[in-house]
């Protein structure tokens, strides 16, 4: 009988090409924000009925009612996924766990859950992705943070700019959209001291900025106190640069040069000023500067081996392909 034979209905045919977009949403003590945040996100995504959304919340060991609030969301909305850590592992790890859970999405959007990253901006990201951009990173046109936070952030990016082996855009947080192929590449980087925005830059592909105004936090307080910010900055600088190790030997050469200058002075006095004794400080200085200079140079030698060991233990992928061996584009989905 013909009606028993299965032929795809028009709606099924449409569903094959529907894009799936996953939001990765780290949560740490956001009990007072979650309901408002999720409401705003649902409202923003509503006009894109042509897209299948998934909302992956990662509870990073919150101490307040965040987890209960998230479980309520899951009850009410089947598109919500909730992961919960056994303790607080930190924002970067929470985002990583979310990315690991969202590998079947055509694109992922990483976003804070304190309403500092406006949901409407993420919808603009989706349009840019549909136009072929692989990574859309949100760049702050303005921000409402304290002067201290802005000043330290400026200093951090200034240092990073000078040291890092790759170019990492300024005034950019982790609020971004990544195409599936980029997210899969990022997932291959398993280093423990994670600096995700650096990893995404390292991966390459077509990356573009989207300017936005960052709002103040809706409720609660920052989960990034100074202590966590310093550890995070260290991950960024040390994770993408071995320059401080190279400075050791440069300093060694500089100090050795001082000892040579002093030696020339000592010889000069000895040879051309017979009536004058060589000053004791100069004589001792030659030995002191020479010895400490040599020691620093040797430490620099150890440092350059250490730098290599470090890079090897990071065990990053050697390269990321944009075209496969058969000349096909990697990870292109029907939806674009
Ligand atoms: N967050 C997290 N784990 C932490 C700290 C923060 O998952 O240990 C989350 C937090 O819930 C928020 C995002 O990461 O969604 C950014 O954190 P926060 O707003 O506290 O940082 P700030 O915006 O002040 O830099
Ligand atoms: Mg915030």
Explain the overall architecture:
- The protein is an alpha/beta fold.
- The chain contains 11 helices and 7 strands.
- Helix 3 links the parallel strand 2 and strand 3.
- The longest helix is centred in the C-terminal third of the chain and has 35 residues.
- The two termini are 38 Å apart.
- The mean pLDDT is 90.
- The structure holds uridine-5'-diphosphate and magnesium ion.
- The site of magnesium ion has 5 residues, from loops.
How are the elements arranged and paired?
Elements: H1 10-16, E1 19-27, H2 34-45, E2 51-59, H3 66-76, E3 80-84, H4 91-101, E4 107-110, H5 119-130, E5 135-142, H6 147-163, E6 172-179, H7 180-186, H8 196-203, E7 207-213, H9 226-239, H10 243-272, H11 280-314
Parallel strand pairs: 1-2, 1-4, 2-3, 5-7
Antiparallel strand pairs: 4-6, 5-6
Helix pairs in contact: 7-8, 10-11
Uridine-5'-diphosphate (UDP) binds at residues 26-28, 30, 60, 88, 90-91, 94, 112-114, 116, 217, 222-224.
Structural class: alpha/beta
Shape annotation: elongated
Ligand list: uridine-5'-diphosphate, magnesium ion
DSSP summary: helix tally:
11
CATH class of the largest domain: Alpha Beta
CATH superfamily of the largest domain: Spore Coat Polysaccharide Biosynthesis Protein SpsA, Chain A
Q: Over the alpha carbons, how many angstroms does the gyration radius reach?
A: 27 Å
How many distinct folded domains? Answer: 2
Q: How are strands sequenced across the largest beta sheet?
A: 3-2-1-4-6-5-7
Q: CA-to-CA gap between the ends?
A: 38 Å
Helix content: 40-55%
The largest sheet, given as strand count, sense and whether it forms a barrel, is:
7 strands, mixed
Mean pLDDT: 90
The count of strands amounts to 7
Order of helices and strands: HEHEHEHEHEHEHHEHHH
What is the architecture of the largest domain at the second tier of CATH?
A: Alpha-Beta Complex
